[in-house]
Amino acid sequence: MGIRGSKECPYLRKEGTEPLTLNRNEGMQQPETAEGPKVLRATVNKILHHSVVDGPGNRAAVFFQGCNFHCAYCHNPETIAMCTSCGHCVDICPAGALTLHDGRVRWLQELCCECDQCIHECPHLASPRTKDYTAAEIMEEIRKDLPFIRGLTVSGGECSLQRDFVAELFRLAKAEGLSTLMDSNGSYDYSQDRELLAVCDGVMLDIKAFDEEEHKKLTGQSREMVLKNAVYLAGCGKLEEIRTVIVPDYLSGAETVEKVGQMLEPYLKEQKIRYKIIAYRPFGVRAPYKEMLHSPSAEELERCKEIAKAYGFAEVVII
Amino acid sequence: MLNITDMKKDVESIITNTALTNEQAAMNLSAVPFNYVEFFETSSEFRELLEAGCVCTMTEGNATYCPRYTLPDYEKLMRDGCRFLRLDPPKTLFEATQTLEMFYRHIPSVTHYPVYLGSVDKMLEPFMDDPHAYEILKSFLIFLDRTIPDSYCHMNLGPEATKAGEMIVEIQTELKNAIPSITLLYDPDITPDDFAAKCVTCALACAKPSFANHKEYQKIYRTPYGIASCYNALPVGGGSFTLSRIVLSRLAARAKDSEHFLHDLLPHTVRVLCEYIEQKIEFLVERTHFFTSNFLVEEGFLKLENFTGMFGVVGMNECVNTLMEKEGCSDRYGYSEKADRLAQDIMEKMTQCVMDFESKYCDCTDHHFTMHAQVGIDVDYDISPGVRIRIGDELPLYEHLEHCAKMQPYFNSGVGDIFPFDETAKRNPAAIVDLIKGAFSKGMRYFSTYSDDCDVIRITGYLVKKSDIEKLDKGIRVQQANAMWGYGEVKNARIYERKVRNL
Are B143 and B58 within one domain? Predict the structure, then answer.
């Protein structure tokens, strides 16, 4: 079901509340064509043609719009919800790059001055600066990059919300010899989707907090599925990387790293899994969290790194 | 006619210059007489082009008495030793590095220092079971930096990964010296990914190694090739007699339009310059002592038939833009198909004209001179190196690499471009290896990188420490001889403004 065109705004945030949660495949549209077969489209926030931080080597990265978690520390909160075409941003755009036509906000990229005012002011944690693509169109977009990249990473938002689209995109990417990685919050039950894992080389999984209450406090969601996925993906050789953001006094980062180490220790002897220890940074974070959260010390990061190393992660990186 | 007053001024400016070491002063003095006397008659056409700056003889002077670039067969040294220097073949790592240190001292070139140190990893690998290997290699590398004060001297590694190669790269990453320059002869089918990534890590710390497209370069000569001086690919056991260059940008200023340039000015200038290069080679071979009595020739470390002459090219970017302007077009080099097509037409025409000239010597290149993308000299102003896109006009990363892949294959004896990265790249050196693989698969010949926080940076083709340039700016002498050239290029060629890439 496409969400564009629905008159009611399902994600309209009431005063003091977080946006509603997206359901799987909700960001995708499958319009019926005259010929019959459905063409999948997905809303994309950004395509990077080269990235050194989204998996091994140089990769293209596709950032989908829409996430079912709404983490307090999210550094690109404008990717969380879908645009409702409420028009608020149209009035504030200093470049005249946003217009409202037939009830829909349109983004004129050539006029955009990238001042980011629209995303800072959006009342819905969305962005008007998105584009809808088919998987084939994304492949066309990155065709010129092919000699210089080894793979494609899908991220977000939450890429697994676009499960059908990702599966199709990965099939096309594989045909071009690219490796395929998902950067996921782990809310999707990967154990039930062999078809997807057949075209996905690995998942870079966020384990934001091991403690259930902390996880709920941060994301609004349970960590049950995330942990199940960590074990399942490690078991089938598809766990590329674990990521934990360290936020002192808000999350027990060292404890999370410790527990994740204990949980995955049986797999680490045979498998090379990277652990990325990420320092919380206020850049891009929304109010009121920006004022509330603070960055960890170098010592704290080192302590987490040592814990992960002791459990035998192949590579432990502090970012 | 010998003008004693001018000569005295030249000498005085050297012996009073507090920014020169004694050795640098002695070497500069040795070049002075050759600017005042002529040993062979040049044509009036040549002198006219030289005066106008359309051709340039690369400060070689008028009496070349040794080849500009020599690439001795060091494998022979390791195998047979050297009679003249009374050196036996080495049996241990210590002996091997000592033998090389002594031998390097006697290798002449235009800089008076060796411009090629050989495939040092391969030479030292048989001795790497030495428990003191790390200390010996480290002291060897420090010795080179302190005794060869010139970063045109070039060490080669690869394409295979070796213990010696890995250790040299690790030690360089730690030492961060400007000398020697290093190139990895890179073939993704032979060089393991982790060794290539280790080389990138080193380059992001101290601007070396660079990467040479081994698959392409190994096809060029019948003998093995080596990378010498800036990035010059030349036959091992030989090298280049001489290098002169055509300054395309200045020649374009004389043109009425592209047709006039391509069909009149270019063929004429190429012919005149080729005749001059040939005269110089004849003088060197027939009237000086080098190929008759130098021990490197006598013992077979260098062979006459492995030498060629280099035809240098500089200023393509400005040349194309000037011609486009003259035709009322706003097309710019790198940014328009029309402008790039003109650049390719110029390269094709020029290569054909160079190939039309037959040399008495240059056996290794079938009696023709070889094309070289010259990187510029310190006094060049508004003349971009070889076929590089000018600093300030760089294209987005992939497009720039594609452009290199289009223009670099015209040059058999050296070409290259430089891509500095911000420090994020240090987290993922494999990503830069991916870029190199992609660019080389498309035909790019030579890739250099450094990080924006390096002290050692690549000026155009050679390495200099930014901290040395600061000292020279204050008139304080530094040990590295060619840091002075780097200082000039920083002043004249906007080296510090080169685009830093973000990944």
Answer: no
Q: Residue B419: is its pLDDT beyond 50?
A: yes
Chain A residues at the B interface, defined by Cβ less than 8 Å, are: 49-53, 56-59, 144-150, 317, 319
Residues of A within 8 A of B201 (CB-CB) are: none
Domains of chain A, start order: 28-74+133-318 (3.20.20.70)
Q: Which helix (H) or strand (E) holds A153?
A: strand A151-155
Domain count, chain B: 3
Closest CA to B361 of B447, B431, B253, B280: B280
Nearest neighbour of B503 by CB, restricted to A52, A317, A319: A52
Nearest to A58 among B424, B431, B442 (CB): B431
Q: pLDDT per residue over B272-302, tens digit each?
A: 999 999 999 999 999 999 999 999 999 999 9
B369: DSSP letter: -
Measured between alpha carbons, how far is B111 from B106 in angstroms, rounded to an integer?
A: 12
Query: Do B318 and B450 belong together in one domain?
Result: no
In terms of domains, do B172 and B313 share one? no
Residue whose C-alpha is closest to residue A125's, from A160, A75, A159:
A75
Count CA atoms within 13 Å of residue B49 on its CB side: 28
Range of the domain at B216: 73-104+111-231+416-503
Contact B182, B172 (CB under 8 A): yes
**Same structural domain, B128 and B95:** yes
The rounded distance, in Å, linking the Cα atoms of A204 and A66 is 18
pLDDT in tens, B228-279: 999 999 999 999 999 999 999 999 999 999 999 999 999 999 999 999 999 9
Residue of B316 and A270 predicted with greater confidence: B316
Reported ipTM: the value is: 0.87
- Whether residue B209 sits in one domain with residue B78: yes
Under DSSP, the state recorded for B494 is -
Distance, CA of A164 to CA of A143 (rounded, Å):
21
Q: Which residue of B has its CA nearest to A51?
A: B503
